[in-house]
Amino acid sequence: MKPLFSQGPSLATRMTLLTVLSLAIAAIYTYTDWFDDLKNRATDIYAPLYWVSDLPGRASEWADNRSMPRAKLAQENEALRTELLVHKRKLQQLASLKAENVRLRQLLNSADTLEDRVIIAELIGIAPDPEIHKVILNKGSADGVYVGQAMLDATGLMGQIVHVGVHASQALLISDTSHALPVQVNRNGVRLIVEGIGDLYKLAVRHAPNTVDIQVGDLLVSSGLGQRFPVGYPVAEVTEVIADPAKPFAQVTARPMAELNRSRHVLLVFDQPPAEEP
How many structural domains compose the chain? Predict the structure, then answer.
């Protein structure tokens, strides 16, 4: 006898239909935005489940921290403190390198404005005696450095070379008590002599008559007299003028334009052609 109703699709057919339906739903879920709202709701739903499943790990970590020996905690703190100091040192070096790059850029810009041939030298030492204002440079006769060569930084004249070795040289700063420099007032050309008084921030203008036309704020530049320094380099700015009618000379002080205690890289100016090799 035949059954009243047919048995329907076979098992293989139903599995095929379910597979195709699942793949279609997965494709729609992945490549369309039809289920975005469902995705957002699902995120809110399974977030607490993840939090609950993480509770055993949190509890274990809390127990380990509570039971950690004091010696181990101190050791970890010391390691972290050391690491922090290392990173701070690196930051200091980065700040120093950044400032040095700025100074070198300024120095190179000032070198572009000079008509004379120049080389860049680096300070590698200073005189141990605080009464002597001398510095040691890393350039010597092998680089063409000679005695009497002018030394500048990015802002003004610093001094001159007094001793030359093969790979190093020694320069005397304009602030040294034994140094004198012929200058002229840039405003009117009045010629004067500037001497060092052992102060990195102050120079003295010697033998300036009371009637000389010099004012606070005047720029003093090298005059070129004596054929030691090139003409026209900034030397100092007048900061004080005291004219006493009872004295023949006025008391004039000036501030060096160069940063005598800060500049690490300097320019050495060649105002004479290099000697030819035999």
Answer: 3
Provide the CATH number for the domain around residue 131. Answer: 2.40.10.340
Whether the full predicted model's pTM is greater than 0.90, yes or no, is no
Cα–Cα distance measured from residue 103 to residue 154, given in angstroms and rounded to the nearest whole number: 8
Beta-carbon contacts of residue 219 (< 8 Å; ≥ 6 apart): 185, 186, 187, 234, 236, 237, 238, 257
Nearest Cα neighbor of 164 from 183, 137, 188, 146 is: 146
List, for residues 163-188, the tens digit of each pLDDT value: 999 999 999 999 999 999 999 998 88
Beta bridge partners of 34: none
Decide: 135 and 249 in contact? Cβ < 8 Å.
Answer: no
Q: Which residues pair with 136 in a beta bridge?
A: 125, 170
pLDDT per residue as tens digits for the range 186-235: 888 899 999 999 999 999 998 999 888 999 999 999 888 877 888 888 89
Reading the block at residue 48, the tokens are 């607490």
